Amino acid sequence: MSPLLGPADIRTLAARLGVRPTKTLGQNFVHDPNTVRRIVRAAELSPDDVVLEVGPGLGSLTLALLPDAAHVHAVELDPVLATALPSTVAERAPDLAGRLTVHSGDAKRVVAADLAPAPTALVANLPYNVAVPVVLHLLAELPTLASGLVMVQKEVADRLTAEPGSRVYGIPTAKLAWYAAARPAGRVPPAVFWPVPNVDSGLVRFVRHDPPPGDRERTFAVVDAAFAQRRKTLRSALSGWAGGAVRAEKALVAAGIDPGLRGEALTITQFAAIASAASTASGYGRHS
What we know:
Layout: H1 7-17, E1 29-30, H2 33-43, E2 50-54, H3 60-65, E3 71-76, H4 79-92, E4 100-104, E5 121-125, H5 131-141, E6 147-153, H6 154-160, H7 171-179, E7 180-188, E8 193-194, E9 201-208, H8 216-228, H9 234-237, H10 239-242, H11 245-254, H12 268-279
Parallel strand pairs: 2-3, 2-5, 3-4, 5-6
Antiparallel strand pairs: 1-8, 6-9, 7-9
């Protein structure tokens, strides 16, 4: 018996558990062993890495991760799947079962104290509807996460890895850039999933770096304001946040930013500079 799960294994296991994939939980199970091997390779794990996997489902990716990691924390929202995963691993990879810890719950509520040993890498097939908030939450809560490889909807992958000036550059791009440098790591076709989604998926690889100088909460408030009306110039878009267009312009000029630019033109470092400029001037910004 191969330790990895193929299409027949996935359906048999789901039937045994009485599991029917739901859109509510964003469940699309990977059933192609080559795809999960590809994900693990792209994650560039070291033997000492402690992996955090979100949404392990029936265990396809989990089984591929265990040989290459020191430990795997699997966070699963569906209690039936969370309960079944240790048995699946014990059956198919008994020598590696001791490397797995399953956590039943919502990844958006995970905190560092929940995970020992501390995770160093995020590797996950993320549900499309929660991918961005999960990634940003985990990077904020888990400073030990040094890198990650996530599979998300292709449209989301494009946003997360966009460069300033791109039409898909926006809030997710800028906020991820606070924590890490991200790049696309390939496309994944719908046929490798059950049920088959109606969109392609994309792989996003990121490596944590030091954040820019400044306050994260204030910077993210500037990002939110800049993209709330993305067709407006920064002078107009930030007027509500700054307490008026004049104050917005003064903050922008102080940060060395052309008030006539739009938010999509700025790097996260420039957004941080605007937040800092506003906070150092009396009356600038609601969050100052």
